[in-house]
Structure formats: structure tokens, C-alpha cells
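Input/output pair, single chain:
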Amino acid sequence: MKVLLIFLILAACVVLEAAFFPYLPLGGAGPSLILIAAVLAGFFRGHVCGALVGLAGGLLEDAVTGRALGLSGLSKMIVGYMAGRVGEKVFKGNSIVPLVFVFIGALIDGVIYFGVGSSFGLLGDFLASLRHIILPRAVYDVLVTGVLYRLTCRLNRYLGEERLPRYRGI
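Output:
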């Protein structure tokens, strides 16, 4: 049941990224809902869950968008794993911490994705991507996470995670 729910959430994220957010760009970029899901999964449920959500969501995103299969999966898996490892060592009661995690995770995801893609000749100039895609997307991801954080806390309580804090607002 939990796996099906997570898959449905990832599928909804991909659909929203492809159908809704292109009409609401911020600085020419849209948010990465899959990245947000991977970071929050790692933060709340541990490094294994973060890595699996990142990998599954990234592969689904690559398959739907037709980009290089595995590139998003790799970058989001690494970020989800890192968020889980760091999340094990920080206080989860403060709602600012996940926003910082998402911002740093978005930067790492962009550097991995565009760095690897550029090195294989799949993508364009890395520095231009940093300025026009990675940084605006990181800011957009933080804004979207601010809206989704409360919902994520409720979802985690529903899934049975006892160690999660109650939402205390930003």
C-alpha cells in the first residue's frame, strides 16, 4: 500500500511538472517536484527511502520527458540519499530546515545533472545552465516546498512514522 501511494505521488509530480508548471516559470525554470519528494522522503523517512524515491521518480521523469534515461534518476537518488543521511542528524521540529535541505539539494541535483550531461555532450554550457536553470529552479523548489511541507508532515503521520514532529509553521 505504501509503495503504491508513493508511486502515485511520484506520477502526480511528473504530470504536474509536465502539464502545469511550464505555464508558471520563475526565471525561465519550473520546480522539480520529484526532487522535492526525494529530499523530503530522505529527510523524514531516512536515506534508503530518499534514495529510492529519487531513483524511481527520476527514472519516471526521464521516461516521460524523453531525456537521457537515468540521468535524473542518478542525480535525484544521490540527493535523496544525502538528505536522508543529513536528516538523521538534525532537529526536525523546525520547518526552516527542510527548506534549506531542498535549496542545497536542488543545487547539488543541478550540478550533477548538468555536469554529467555536459561532460557527455548531452547538454549545453554548464555555467549558462547554472545561471538560467539551476539557481532559479532552486529558489522555485524552496517556494513550492514551503507550500507542501505541511502536507508532507501529515502524509508521513498517515504512513506511520512516529518520530516526526507536528507542523509548527514557518
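The domain at 2-19+29-158 is CATH 1.10.1760 (Arp2/3 complex 21 kDa subunit ARPC3). The radius of gyration is 15 Å.
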